[in-house]
Amino acid sequence: MKRIYLDHAATTPLSQKAFEAMKPYFSDMFGNANSQHAFGRDGAKAVTEARQTIADCIGAKPSEIYFTSSGTEADNWAIKGIAAQLLDKGKHIVTSVIEHPAVYTTCKQLEKFGFEVTYLPVDGEGFVSADDLDKAIREDTVLVSVMFANNEIGTVQPIKQLCEVAHKHGVLFHTDAVQATGAIKYDVKELGVDLLSMSAHKFCGPKGMGALYVRNGLRIEKLLTGGEQERAHRGGTTNTPGVVGMAVALKEAVENIDETAKYVGELRNRFVSKVLERIDEIYFNGAKDMSKRLYNNANFSFRYIEGESILFSLDLAGICASSGSACSSGSLEPSRTLLAIGVPVGTAHGSIRFTFGKENTVEDVDYVVDELVKTVEKLRAMSPLYKKK
Ligand SMILES: *Cc1c(COP(=O)(O)O)cnc(C)c1O
Asked: 331: alpha, beta or left, given left = phi > 0 and alpha = psi -120 to 50?
């Protein structure tokens, strides 16, 4: 049976170009990029070029890019690194209630060590308010961390505006741009952010590879102590193939950003309008204005039925979607993000995220809509809640 992958927010297929570019660094050019000999120089040269490429893609300088093992590590480093660096200033952090676990649980952990964290609420479409942020910042606030684009509902925050609010109070601003990077054109200088996280496997790069942008002049405590790698900021032997693959994938994504957004955005829009037309008693979660939402994201709550049952049934038809985020699936807790935008607990349990990619087709969309309609009808027919109506 043909498989249709609609879970691009969880991970994306590796770009063929990136794969080809990585191969030599798994074989002949295996040297440690920090070694002082010919093999080491092969690696070092590749890493230098990759750092330049990534910097160019986001309007940064190469000296502002630090490679990490994942988006999760970049988020941990940004938050814990600034918290540790600014211990003398205070122990208060502001973030949002809809952050990815990489940020959210990091803040929760810091609370165990005596930090206070304000979790900003969001409105019904998932937006953080600049006013709320303004009011939340205190004398002892050391960092504001608000995600660029949400991984579950696709809402894109007004990062530049939020960043200005933080800076008005002299507070640093970090953004988890893992979903935004490669999908939205941005320039770190124009946004004004001090720190920004990204992850390669979300833009068709390899898994286990991320980066943290740290504005020049900003001091940050280390997360991983060790050798002198990453200009003595992050210990650990450089993942040369990963670095190379990440740069090639990001360049490819950024070069094709408009074309991909148009093509995938049209697939997503076709899907959303057909689903809303053919299935009743559902909510379309996240930003209603499609220009303020990731072009590939659609998230629905289907009343009276369980998301897990829908997923299972779709999976039997070869359709791979997700209930909430991959990071929290397996847990029976309803999504923190959906509850935050006001979806009732029962309904939140009946939610599915569909995230499209450039290998999807119009035929895929139409097939998925038909299967989804059948699935929802079948499950609702068995649901005592639905029958009662
Ligand atoms: C996937 C994701 C992460 C984690 O990145 P990994 O590289 O998988 O650790 C962090 N934040 C957001 C918004 C994500 O979507």
From this structure: beta
